[in-house]
Write a structure and sequence with these properties.
The protein is mostly helical and about 140 residues long. It has one domain (about 1-144). About 85% of the residues lie in helices and about 0% in strands. It has helices at about 1-40, 45-70, 75-110, 115-140. Helix 1 (about 1-40) runs antiparallel to helix 2.
Length: about 140
């Protein structure tokens, strides 16, 4: 039963990531298309939309790749998954830091709207991934 529970948690995690990725692709694409149709030169919003759609597409690719390899895990497999999630969570924090650095630097050094929008987009995506990964860590942790 423990392996079944872990399998269900991992499936749920991938489904939530797929929903986030799909919503990101859809939202980013719609905003980008609307800006293009209107001939808008709103660089901040355009670059935010590009980051949102691109990260969403990557998330969907990760879900497809991970779903193919989804298997029942024994204790060692669960520990490997947990270690991988901790690594991802650290990377997610790094994404937020890099995005914040990009946005703040662009704002302080000449108000480059496109870089600010891209930085904010990276912060949003990194924070969402952090929350998704941390949720699964917290659910798996007590099972150990």
């Amino acid at each position: 039963m423990w392996a079944d529970t872990l399998f269900a948690l991992e499936q749920g995690h991938l489904l939530r990531l797929a929903v986030w990725g799909g919503a990101s692709v859809l939202a980013g694409s719609i905003v980008f298309a609307v800006l293009a149709m209107r001939g808008s030169r709103a660089a901040m919003l355009r670059h935010f939309a590009i980051q949102t759609a691109a990260w969403g597409a990557i998330d969907l690719g990760i879900v497809l790749w991970s779903w193919r390899g989804l298997v029942m895990r024994d204790f060692a497999g669960a520990q490997t998954l947990l270690n991988f999630l901790w690594l991802n969570t650290g990377l997610d924090v790094g994404y937020v830091a890099v995005g914040a650095t990009l946005a703040i630097t662009a704002w302080r050094w000449g108000t480059r709207a496109g870089a600010i929008g891209a930085g904010i987009g990276v912060v949003v995506q990194g924070a969402a991934l952090f929350l998704l990964d941390l949720r699964l860590i917290l659910l798996i942790g007590p099972m150990q």
